[in-house]
């Protein structure tokens, strides 16, 4: 037990306690949390500095807004209904398009207007929000996800998580849905996490349920050496997110749209630590180095440059193996 | 970052230091017992003075115990009859005297003094002022013959001893020894004792010998606390102090416990203007809760002990606090299990609340009833899922169902003569409802396995906290020493800055153990 402890400590693995004390509570002022807890606020802030997000079709706050529901849903390409304060993808409703007077969900199920209204009412009553406070329902553009991760995804939408320390991207992974995770990209449900080299945007190692894997469990495609497209844009989005939120330790979730490129889905003020398993290394060293670097004021694009240099310096092997 | 860590560490250490400081003062200086139900023997002590008045002014003086020795001395009472009472002090010996006076008493009269004491032992320290009352006195100033004898003998004793310790031993031994003819200084001792060869005279001589060497010494009077009876003899003994060490010499053997009343060679009671004076000292022992004696400790220190306690509150409130004060213990354990072990529970403090409910049901029944209610509630919750109810009304339905289930179980169990059915009513139903809701959400969002795992985790934590909170020792310690709350708070502050891995994370990150 002590052997394991000291081995993990030597490898720089941080636990939930360390994340909470050293990073979340030290770098994320509570007064800014609303900027990431409410996805409508996040969207507004991100759009203002040029971070692309899925287009917002409408917001439902109360029964009066509900009258405009059919107007908001008038998009034959489909749309997504999600609670503004939901977390971990809870309560999200992906509508692919109209079907026989109702709508077809991504799961293939047909729903009618009453089903949708019930779901929205659940969201408004706070069923999916933290602490159960009343919430809003957002209706927005449905992402048509890029095929780059198509071969290593089973249903659902893969996304890219970048962790940024004071705007310096330090760790990244691609989260892939599996049959076991029911098409969701959440790691604790069985999604696959694949480490991505910050310097290059190439995927490297992978994990599922805290265990290391080499191939996707459903599609059997190898997970290594896939180039994430628009990598510099994604890093820049992560860097800019710090400027608009003031939160020093965030997880930036990005999806790749076939037509619109990378879009910011949401920001997370308490990003999980499983990303260390996906990258097969601990975060402490890079966190501490980035912390030292953050003493100097830099613009977002300068921070991306610094981040890449840091990644090359700390993880040179990964570059060699992929070249 | 660094400063906040230092700040937290200082705060935690300060809280722990203050809490433990008060705790040790109470435990060591005030003798608060550390285990529940500790008994101590308390002695009722009474000086009973009976006499006949002569129809002329009467004055009865009696020494009464002074508060200068470190001893528990809770209540004292005077029974004066028609006499006037005044209290007088003697500055040199620090004795205390009760003086009863009356102008024209007739017939038999009684005055009494009563007190309660734990008594003293050989290890009770002598007061500081006595230790420092260093006066080198040469006795027998007036009588040149006795003076010569004293100088010869004490000089010889000094020659035959190595230091003050052996001098004192030798002086006491020879003063009290049966003299034989071979004894070299028998004549001197005989001359010095003169016709005063009783215990008092010998103690007096020993005291004079010690004082002539600059050793603080005095004669104490009091009673031995050995048996309960009327007409206890007063005893005399010698107290002296050498080089930071206290000594008591009891002629004829030391008692286990004794009670000092006065110092000096004078008799306990002196009376003028009365006939047939009869002084009786009565002792009675009784076993008492050691805590109640500690709570009645005298002096400013005793006030500190009383200030940090609940004994002035109404009994019902005290009983409530007896339970309430154990909750922080459960909470601290919960914090440990979550932050260091990594237990996952449904709701932050929910297991502690369930643990409190277990107090009424006992552990096994508690677990059974809890599981039964959760299973019933979950079944209803899954059924309600199909009805598409809104959140708050759905919670209300589950809560009403829980109350119904609790009532139903009570009725059924009582019908089957099972008393445990009654205790189910103390389960916190709102907590149960929220637990069911959380569990069903985990069930849907993650998996049934995860929900059951978290449910079992909660139950395990509830059981552990229950075992700690219902422990008699824990309950007693927290109630008698509420300052331990500060210690718990300090520990929680420290745990709040723990940044190491949790035990569960060792398993979680096992893939990263290799280099």
TrEMBL record, chain A:
Official protein name in the record: Alpha-L-glutamate ligase-like protein
High-level lineage: Bacteria, Pseudomonadati, Pseudomonadota, Alphaproteobacteria, Parvularculales
Any Pfam family matching the protein: ATPgrasp_ST
Boundaries of every ATP-grasp domain copy: 43-297
Organism in which the protein naturally occurs: Hyphococcus lacteus
Coiled coil: none
Keyword hit for Iron: no
UniProt keyword annotations, A-Z: ATP-binding, Nucleotide-binding
TrEMBL record, chain B:
Origin superkingdom: Bacteria
Annotated protein name in UniProt: UUP1 family membrane protein
Alphabetical keyword list: Membrane, Transmembrane, Transmembrane helix
Annotated ranges, domain Inactive transglutaminase fused to 7 transmembrane helices: 26-178
Annotated organism of origin: Hyphococcus lacteus
Transmembrane segments: 319-336, 364-384, 391-413, 419-439, 481-500
Domain 7 transmembrane helices usually fused to an inactive transglutaminase: 267-512
Pfam family, one: 7TM_transglut
Annotated InterPro entries: 7TM_transglut (IPR025840), Transglut_i_TM (IPR025838)
């Amino acid at each position: 037990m002590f052997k394991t402890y000291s081995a993990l400590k030597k490898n720089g693995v941080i636990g939930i306690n360390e994340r909470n004390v050293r990073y979340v509570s030290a770098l994320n002022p509570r007064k800014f949390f609303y900027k990431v807890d409410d996805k409508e606020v996040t969207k507004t802030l991100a759009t203002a500095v040029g971070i692309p997000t899925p287009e917002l079709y409408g917001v439902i706050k109360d029964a009066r807004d509900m009258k405009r529901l059919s107007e908001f849903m008038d998009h034959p390409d489909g749309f997504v209904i999600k609670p503004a304060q939901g977390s971990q993808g809870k309560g999200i409703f992906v509508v692919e398009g109209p079907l026989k007077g109702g709508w077809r969900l991504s799961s293939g199920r047909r729903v009618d207007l009453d089903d949708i209204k019930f779901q929205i009412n659940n969201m408004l009553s706070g069923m999916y929000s933290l602490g159960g406070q009343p919430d809003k329902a957002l209706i927005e553009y449905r992402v048509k996800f890029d095929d780059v991760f198509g071969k290593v995804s089973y249903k659902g939408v893969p996304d890219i998580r970048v962790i940024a320390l004071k705007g310096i991207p330090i760790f990244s992974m691609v989260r892939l849905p599996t049959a076991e995770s029911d098409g969701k990209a959440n790691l604790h449900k069985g999604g696959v996490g694949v480490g991505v080299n910050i310097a290059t945007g190439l995927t490297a190692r992978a994990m599922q349920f805290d265990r290391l894997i080499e191939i996707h469990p459903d599609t059997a495609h190898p997970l290594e050496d896939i180039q994430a497209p628009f990598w510099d844009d994604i890093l820049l989005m992560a860097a800019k997110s710090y400027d608009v939120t003031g939160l020093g330790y965030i997880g930036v979730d990005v999806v790749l749209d076939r037509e619109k490129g990378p879009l910011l889905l949401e920001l997370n003020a308490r990003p999980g630590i499983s990303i260390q398993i996906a990258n097969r290394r601990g975060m402490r060293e890079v966190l501490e180095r980035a912390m030292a670097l953050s003493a100097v004021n830099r613009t977002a694009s300068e921070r991306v440059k610094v981040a890449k240099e840091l990644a090359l310096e700390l993880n040179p092997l990964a570059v060699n193996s992929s070249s | 970052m660094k400063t906040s860590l230092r700040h937290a560490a200082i705060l935690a250490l300060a809280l722990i230091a203050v809490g433990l400081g008060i705790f040790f003062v109470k435990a060591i200086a005030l003798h608060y017992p550390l285990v529940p139900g500790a008994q101590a023997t308390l002695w009722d002590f009474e000086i009973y003075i009976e006499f006949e008045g002569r129809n002329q002014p009467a004055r009865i003086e009696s020494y009464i115990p002074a508060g200068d020795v470190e001893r528990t001395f809770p209540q004292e009472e005077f029974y004066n009859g028609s006499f006037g009472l005044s209290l007088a002090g003697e500055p040199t010996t620090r004795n205390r005297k009760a003086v009863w006076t009356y102008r024209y008493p007739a017939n038999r009269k009684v005055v009494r003094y009563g007190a309660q004491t734990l008594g003293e032992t050989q290890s009770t320290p002598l007061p500081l002022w006595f230790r420092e009352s260093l006066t080198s006195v040469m006795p027998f100033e007036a009588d040149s013959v006795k003076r010569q004898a004293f100088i010869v003998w004490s000089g010889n004793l000094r020659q035959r001893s190595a230091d003050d310790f052996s001098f004192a031993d030798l002086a006491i031994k020879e003063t009290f020894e049966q003299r034989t003819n071979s004894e070299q200084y028998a004549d001197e001792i005989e001359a010095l004792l003169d016709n005063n060869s009783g215990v008092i005279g010998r103690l007096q001589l020993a005291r004079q010998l010690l004082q002539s060497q600059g050793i603080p010494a005095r004669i104490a009077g009091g009673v031995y606390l050995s048996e309960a009876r009327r007409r206890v003899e007063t005893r005399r003994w010698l107290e002296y102090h050498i080089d930071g060490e206290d000594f008591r010499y009891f002629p004829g053997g030391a008692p286990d416990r004794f009670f000092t009343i006065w110092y000096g060679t004078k008799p306990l009671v002196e009376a003028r203007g009365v006939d047939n004076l009869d002084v009786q000292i009565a002792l009675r022992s009784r076993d008492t809760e050691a805590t109640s004696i500690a709570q009645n400790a005298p002096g400013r220190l005793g006030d500190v002990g009383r200030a940090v306690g609940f004994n002035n509150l109404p009994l019902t409130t005290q009983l409530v606090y007896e339970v309430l004060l154990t909750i922080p213990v459960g909470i601290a354990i919960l914090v440990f299990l979550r932050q260091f072990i990594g237990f996952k529970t449904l709701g932050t403090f929910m297991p502690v609340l369930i643990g409190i409910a277990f107090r009424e049901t006992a552990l096994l029944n508690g677990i059974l009833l809890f599981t039964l209610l959760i299973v019933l509630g979950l079944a209803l919750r899954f059924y309600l899922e199909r009805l598409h109810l809104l959140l708050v009304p759905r919670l209300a339905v589950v809560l009403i169902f829980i109350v119904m289930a609790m009532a139903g179980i009570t009725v059924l169990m009582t019908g089957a003569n099972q008393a445990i059915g009654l205790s189910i009513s103390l389960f916190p139903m709102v907590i149960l409802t929220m637990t069911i809701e959380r569990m069903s959400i985990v069930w849907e969002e993650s998996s049934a396995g995860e929900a059951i795992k978290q449910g079992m985790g909660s139950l395990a934590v509830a059981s552990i906290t229950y075992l700690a909170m219902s422990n008699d020792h824990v309950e007693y310690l927290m109630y008698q020493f509420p300052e331990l709350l500060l210690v718990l708070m300090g520990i929680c502050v420290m745990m709040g800055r723990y940044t190491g891995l949790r035990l569960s994370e060792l398993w979680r990150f096992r893939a990263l153990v290799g280099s």
